[in-house]
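User: Before I run my own analysis I want an independent prediction to cross-check against. Here's the chain; please return only the C-alpha cells and, at the end, one sentence I can use as a sanity check.
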Amino acid sequence: MLLSVDRSQADSVHSLSFEVIASVAEREGVDPTEIEPPEYDALYSVVNPEALDSLFSPRADGTTRTQGRVEFPFCGYRVVVTSEGDVEVYDDLEDA
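Assistant: C-alpha cells:
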C-alpha cells in the first residue's frame, strides 16, 4: 500500500487516506495492501494523502474545521470524503 503515512499510525487510528484505500479495496474484493501499482492507481497520483488527512482534522487549538467534502476519481471510482470522516465510493464516476 503506497501511502504517505506511518503504517503504525494506520494500525491504531485509520486516517482518511487509509479509509479511501480500504473502501476501494472492499469494492474490489481485495485486501487494502493490494491496492497499489501497477494494478491499481497510487492514491498520491490523484490527491495528496497527507493533505487529505489534515484537511478535516481539528486545528492546532482543538477547534473543528468548517463543513465540507472532497471528491476525486480513484481506481475507476468516484470517491467522496466528508468533513464528518465519511468515505463513499461510487461505481460510476457520474453518480456522485
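Sanity check: Confidence is low (pLDDT under 50) at residues 1-12.
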